[in-house]
Each structure stands twice: as C-alpha cells, then as structure tokens.
Design goal:
Layout lengths: L17 E11 L23 E7 L5 H9 L3 H10 L4 E9 L2 E8 L6 E12 L4 E13 L2 E9 L7 H14 L15 E7 L9 H9 L4 H4 L3 H6 L3 H4 L34 E7 L25 H5 L2 E10 L11 E9 L8 E6 L2 E2 L4 E7 L10 E6 L10 E4 L4 E4 L4 E5 L9 E9 L4 E5 L3 E4 L2 H5 L9 H12 L1
Parallel strand pairs: 1-2, 7-8, 13-21
Antiparallel strand pairs: 1-11, 2-4, 3-4, 5-6, 6-7, 8-9, 10-11, 12-14, 14-18, 15-16, 15-19, 17-18, 19-20, 19-21
C-alpha cells in the first residue's frame, strides 16, 4: 500500500479539543461481490482506533432480483462491512442507497448517542435525471453539535464530459435539502466531505507518457492535466474544497483480478477517477461580498459564526492513498484518514437508560429512562433491546413503544413495560437503546446487563414454541456453522 506524510498540522488553537479519527473509503466495485477479507481496507490492524467509518460505494450490483432482496435485507456489501466492524464495537448508524450508489456510516459505540439529527437523501443525474445510475447520495448529521455532511457521487463518464461533471456536482449541491434550520443545504454544513467515482480524467498527455510516469512513480508530472485540479482553478464552487496530493497510482482502469491497466482494445488511459475532498465552511464574509463569496455560496446562506468561534472545528488529513491489493473491480479503492479536532457542544446523552431488576423470558420486565435534556420526543419513539455487539441501529432483538408501554412516571425516571414473550429464552449480554424518531438516531444507551436463561424453557426442553424467532435464527446459523 502506498503511504504519504500527514497533510499539514492542525491549526494551533488556544482551546482544548477532542480528537476524533475519521476513515473514509470510496470504491467503484463494478457490480462485484465483496472480497472475503477487508481488514486492510479498513486498517483494522492499525494501533490507532477509528471513531467513524464512512464507506461510499458505486456500481453496487442492482439487478432486479438482487435489488429487490436488498430492499428487504442488507446488501452483501453492507452485511460484509457490518460483520467486519461489529465485533470491534462499531454500529451502522445510517445508510442510503440509490440503485448502484451506496453510502454507509459506522460509529464506535461510545459516540452513537452523540450523533444526532441524521438525515439522508439522494439526487439522480443519469439519463435525464430519471435513472439512478449516476448522481449523489448524502448523509448529514450533528456530531457533538457540529454539522457534518458526507456526499458520495458517481458523475458522468468519458474524457470530454469534464464540464458536465462539474455541472452535475453543482446541481446536486444546490438541490439537495435537509429539514435542518442550521444546515438546510450541503454547503451550509461546518464540514463537508465530497467523494466517489467523480470520473475526472487526465487529458492532453498520451497513453505512453501517462503509463511511463506511473511506472516511475512520477505522479506529479500528471497533476497539471488532471481535470479536477484544472477545474478547481476556474470554478468558484470547487475552490472551497481541499484535497491531499495524489501520491498514489491512478485507480482506473484495471483488468479485473489483476494490477494491469486496461489491456483491452480500448486501452483506456489511467486516471484518478476516485477521489476524496473536503470543505470547511468559510469563517467570515467581507462586508462588500453581498452576492457571492469565494466558493460560490450565496452570502445569505452562510450562517452566523458565533457558534463556530465558541466551538472550533479543525481538520488534518493523515492518509490519502489507494489500496492495490483489491482487484475484484476495474477500480482500486481509495482511502482517506482524517483527524478532527473539535470542542464538543455537549457531552451528556439526551436520555439515561437502565434495566430494572433481573431479566429473563420467565417474567415481564421493566426498564427505566430519564430525560437528561429536552429533546423532540414523539409517539413513534421506541426503546430497543440489543445483544452486545449489535451491527446496526435496527439490529434489535425486540423493541417497545415508549409512550404505549409506559407504566409510571416519577420525579426521577419513567418506567416502561417489556413483555416476557419478546425476551430471548437463551439469554445473553444485552443493552438498551432509546431511538428518537424525530432525530432519526439513538440518543441513549444503557450499560450492558445480563438477560438470564429461561428456567421454564430449560425445564420444558427448549420447546420451539417457547423460543423467540431470533433464538431460532441464531440456533439455525450455529448449526450451519
């Protein structure tokens, strides 16, 4: 794997900030199924823990039968990534798919209650805007109060369409909106990451020259003719985005299952089609910039910056590289690792949760929750029972509606009833999570607690009618393995 030096130091602020490590991957997988081992792609053997993983894929297989099954069940890529990350205490907190475009966000469990107001959307740009083979999918959120947006794009192909690619990006950035007063559009966010198969090519240079530069690792000789770098010099919207140096091989186009660039009759010229860029929102506007400021955003859309000054956010790129060992696609994956230094706007979850008394499938159970701060609760809020090591927000054993199953309220806590029929008879180490429907996220997680085996079920020989559906699934999988 190629490596590079960190892309500059974090600014020397006069505040104490927390450091979070962010790992972004973009990969055009060309309809291939995931490889058996993705530990290198995710840097799972690194001594430094990752706080957030953001995985953007393009050309995930979306044939009619597979796509319909993926609507009901997790697609093979999501399943493989969850299987790799869940044992390390990462949870999939959000995902969005538009045909072949897939965006996944994983968080270390400890951060889950502090990732709030999650929203996801998509924009089609392919085939008159009706077909989802090209476009962008995005996830926006509040991370300890800081507004972040992740945008995964697959833009128009072919050498001659550089201007069209810029137009598509501008269209996506301008038309995607969120139900969020502080950050209604993508560029309103404090920090934006833009990545994907952006499809920009290396123009003017001939195939022989490009391949010679790659063989000699003289990548810098190609940068001046990289279309994205060229477009950034004249397009105001792009000038607000930063990118690390392209000190790695162009990631397109390879013969599948090889490290050989296109040997077909077309002999496509190698290019850095797969990119990761970022943008910190400008800190200030000059008084004379009434219509437009430097990156093309309307001045009226830039939010007040008092909050930004009180709660600073800084970014450093620590790694920007391709991973050559993966060859299931004609693209190589690209990884960007970042350190975010931020001052947290809050450090307390919105809700405190705990199980009351002993839990087993032999008796109805009770849980307690206490709101620690005001939040937009609704009748659609629920509390899920999870196995320790759960894979995603919706990977619960069972759940109970907060309002419907409320038993009592006192000054300290609200008591909620859980039917014993929903508790797994096999028991296990579990935890509770409060899901706020308005904020689209878990806002509180309990400490792990033990659910005991059902004594009744043991005495009756684990009769199948006594075993919950989850227990039957787990038992079946254990037999197969």
């Amino acid at each position: 794997m190629a490596s590079m030096e960190p892309n500059g130091d974090l600014q020397r602020g006069d505040y104490e900030g927390d450091h979070l490590r962010l790992h972004i991957v973009t990969w055009n997988v060309a309809t291939a199924d995931p490889p058996d081992d993705m530990s290198s792609l995710l840097l799972l053997d690194s001594p430094e823990d990752v706080d957030l993983y953001v995985i953007g894929l393009q050309e995930v297989y979306s044939g009619p039968l597979r796509f319909m099954s993926d609507v009901v069940f997790d697609d093979p890529w999501s399943y493989a990534l969850m299987a790799a990350l869940a044992p390390r205490q990462y949870v999939k907190v959000s995902s969005i798919r538009m045909q072949g475009l897939l965006l996944l966000l994983f968080s270390k469990l400890e951060h889950v209650p502090f990732i709030r107001d999650i929203q996801a959307t998509y924009t089609r740009t392919g085939i008159f805007g009706y077909w989802g083979n090209k476009g962008g999918v995005s996830i926006r959120l509040s991370l300890y109060g800081h507004m972040l947006c992740f945008l995964n794009c697959h833009l128009a192909a072919h050498m001659k369409h550089a201007a069209e690619r810029v137009f598509e990006f501008e269209y996506i950035a301008d038309t995607q909106t969120f139900n969020c007063e502080k950050a209604e559009r993508i560029l309103d966010h404090r920090l934006v990451f833009w990545f994907g198969d952006l499809n920009f090519r290396i123009q003017d240079h001939g195939l022989h020259f490009v391949r010679t530069c790659i063989s000699n690792q003289n990548y810098s000789l190609l940068w001046s003719k990289d279309q994205l770098i060229m477009m950034k010099q004249k397009e105001k919207l792009l000038q607000g985005f930063e990118e690390g140096p392209l000190d790695f091989q162009p990631t397109y186009k390879f013969d599948v299952n090889t490290d050989t660039y296109d040997s077909s009759s077309k002999k496509r010229k190698p290019a850095w089609t797969d990119r990761i860029l970022w943008r910190l929102r400008p800190k200030a506007l000059h008084a004379d910039e009434q219509d437009k400021h430097g990156d093309g955003t309307d001045a009226k859309d830039v939010k007040p910056l008092d909050e930004a000054e009180e709660y600073p956010l800084e970014i450093r790129q620590d790694l920007y590289t391709s991973n050559m060992e993966y060859s299931v696609s004609d693209h190589k994956p690209v990884t960007g690792v970042f350190t975010l230094k931020l001052k947290k706007m809050y450090t307390t979850p919105l809700v405190h949760l705990q199980a009351e008394g002993e839990w087993s499938a032999d008796i109805d159970a009770m849980l307690l929750y206490s709101p620690l701060q005001p939040f937009p609760s609704s009748t659609w809020d629920w509390i899920g029972l999870y196995k320790v090591g759960f894979t995603s927000v919706f990977d619960y054993i069972t759940y109970t509606w907060v309002k419907d199953d409320e038993v009592s309220i006192d000054d300290d806590a609200i008591k909620v009833y859980v039917n014993k029929e929903e508790i797994p008879v096999t028991g296990g180490e579990c935890m509770l999570g409060y899901y706020c429907n308005t904020l689209q996220c878990i806002i509180g997680i309990s400490e792990p607690f033990q659910v005991h085996e059902s004594k009744v079920a043991i005495e009756e020989g684990f009769l199948h009618e006594k075993i919950s559906s989850l227990d039957q699934i787990v038992a079946t999988e254990n037999i197969r393995n």
